[in-house]
Amino acid sequence: MIRKFLLFSVLLVPSPLTARPVTVSDLMAVRTVVDVRISPDGARVAYVLSEPSLEKNEHAAALYVVSAAGGEARRLTHTTRLFNRPLPRPELRWSPDGKRLSFLAFVTELPQVMAMDAVGGEPWPLTSSPTGVARYEWSKDASRLAYVAAEPEPAEETREKQEKTFVIHAGRPGRPTRLFVQDVVGGAPRVVSPPEHYVSSLDWSPDGKTLAYSASGAGEYLENWRSRLYTISAEGGEPAVLVGRDGMNSEPRFSPDGRFVAFTSTGGVPRMISSPGLHLVSAEGGDPRPLAGSDTWVREVVWEPSGRSLLFIPNEATGRGGEHMFEQPIFRVELEGLDGRTEVVTSGADVAFSLSSSADGSRLAFRSVGPRDAGDVVVMDLKSGTSRALTNVNPELEDLDIGSLEVLSWRSFDGMEIWGMLVTPPGHRSGTPIPLVVYVHGGPIGGFTHGLFPQFMHRPGQIDPYPVEALASAGIAVLMPMPRGGSGYGLEGFRKIVRSWGEGDYRDIMAGVDHLIERGLADPERLGVMGASYGGYMTNWIVTQTNRFKAASTAASISDIADMYYLSDAGEVTEEYFGLPWEESALYEAHSPITHVEAVKTPLLIQHGENDRRVPVQQAEKFYRALRKLGKTVEMDIYPRGGHVNYEPRLEKAIMERNLEWFERWIGAGAR
């Protein structure tokens, strides 16, 4: 029973008199800013806009530029196909002299670095890698590029594939991704990193003589959490170890004077249950020092020109908890007095992405997402602290009757304060209980943020199988809880579900449901639950533990945790939570939904991609077959070409429509 309820904010969207309900088609039309870069002189901001195309069945992308003073944005690309496989990832950059814009685009179906004059015109390729470019950076004098690309396929392998005699040998490492350097004007690329280093990120020293890069070994998924930092001459040679400790060490960034390298790191912890925080090391090597606390998961870092401070954006483990855990502000940390203290640079309940700075540090540009929108390009004057939006990429949202948002908390069974967000139907007034669907996030280390696609604002949100706003327009409230094990409670919170999936996190969720019933908002006879990946596991688990829900939808879901260890491309994650399945078989069995399948009474919709390697489709088939044999109400949809996430707009639309129809059928206005 809940002992305490707190409502910290009510964020309402005033609806125009002509506003209409939100449909899945409306959500499929939402555009997403996927990359933002301010010019070195701070006068212009370039950005890439992603838009789902049902006709082409892809997320198409186009490059725009707008004055930092405001005004109409100008589209720069029309026929050029920016890299969008499976989603737009253009790696947009200004050349350091501000004369050119560069990005990844397709050249004969491979992503290459292309450039164009900043004033417009036709782009031209700068690279011709036979395997395509993954990442790249300009040297500070704009004369060279360094980029990451896979080694070409050996001739023998090509021949075997042509003759259909090629055999995949399990456990054999794939082709290494290596670091290349080439002159911007002419010249052949030269590889500078050794073949045993699988390079993932890079940066140039200010003098252009040295490159810093992160690299791991090949093979299993856990290698992503075992990367090292190296430095190497831009001319090649033997790399030097910059940070050789265990764990993830990635995303190096040289300070403006070249004396230090900032990077993200798990601080020597080679585990997935960790927080990659912001760290600093001398460019000559030595012991790294933490700059931000271990509970701050950092993805984006920008040095300020003075070299005395850095700006960064936290992601999963947010820099602030409580009612602010759904925000993602920009932070500043000073190098002096390295005690982990930070200050928030931005204000408001917003979520920031794609941070860049002018050369003098006076202006920032980034994508900013508000509680009830999909994000726009914002420029900020750091001296005054004032910000202004430069774009309105989704003006159609002004015509939609979007639901209202509450940030709320409750006390769980052990007194822990649990937070969540609640979206209620447009115009809803208290007094009459309404249907409620609980949306459980993935992960387990995952969570929700502000925005129209609360779990996927970092990417084009249509990959979300659950149309929250369309459900709200259909008269169904949506609760998005943040139970223990996920984001918002720091590293300690991540570890609260070790050896105990479906225990405390399940009770956290049910405590939130109970309070909304007590509050008079949720109709106890019209409850639903949904989730994908770990949220799919929790949905499967919930319907084996309680019959209170009248409908459930599960996607990319786990039914047998032991099978995850043996069959998933990331099976090591189950070892971190439960140990090895042959040593902890009872623990695995007790926490697997398939063990308790006979208890299910809730009608269940199962959705899965046929090519899901993270949670193989056998997990869904196993649960479905058992439920069918037991005579339960169950339906299953398998999506062709789909993986752990579905990236094709036609499939995305079909999945959202299916979920909307499912909940309207079982708990909607006409369900009783």
Structure description:
The protein is of the alpha+beta class. It has a domain at about 395-665: Rossmann fold, CATH 3.40.50. It contains eleven helices and 37 strands. It has a nine-stranded mixed sheet with strand order 1-30-31-33-32-34-35-36-37, sandwiched between helices. It has a four-stranded antiparallel sheet with strand order 2-3-4-5, with no helix packed on it. A four-stranded antiparallel sheet has the order 6-7-8-9, with no helix packed on it. Strand 4 and strand 5 (about 75) form a beta hairpin. The longest helix has 19 residues, at about 650-665. The model is unreliable at about 1-15 (pLDDT under 50).
In CATH, the architecture of the domain at 397-667 is 3-Layer(aba) Sandwich
Quaternary? single chain
Distance between the termini: 27 Å
- Largest sheet features: 9 strands, mixed
Strand content: 25-35%
Number of helices: 11
Radius of gyration: 25 Å
CATH topology of the domain at 397-667: Rossmann fold
Report the structural category.
Answer: alpha+beta
**What's the CATH H-level homologous superfamily of the domain at 397-667?**
Alpha/Beta hydrolase fold, catalytic domain
Mean pLDDT: 92
CATH class of the domain at 397-667: Alpha Beta
**Coarse shape:** globular
Spans of at least 5 consecutive residues whose pLDDT stays below 50 are 1-14
